[in-house]
Amino acid sequence: MAKKPTREEQQRMCTGKRRYATEADALDTALLRGVERTRQAYRCPLCHRWHLTTTRASQ
Fold it and tell me: Does the model's pTM come out above 0.90?
């Protein structure tokens, strides 16, 4: 079982990412960058904003 990240580790993971006000804003950014197929938006439990994460392409 993986160790749960500490609050400090969570903050470092969050602060290094771009934050978006809405899921639509995050996905629009992915679309404009041409990476919409490999990005997914998620709501951050720490800052309550939206981030983009990389997903595996379907094979």
Answer: no
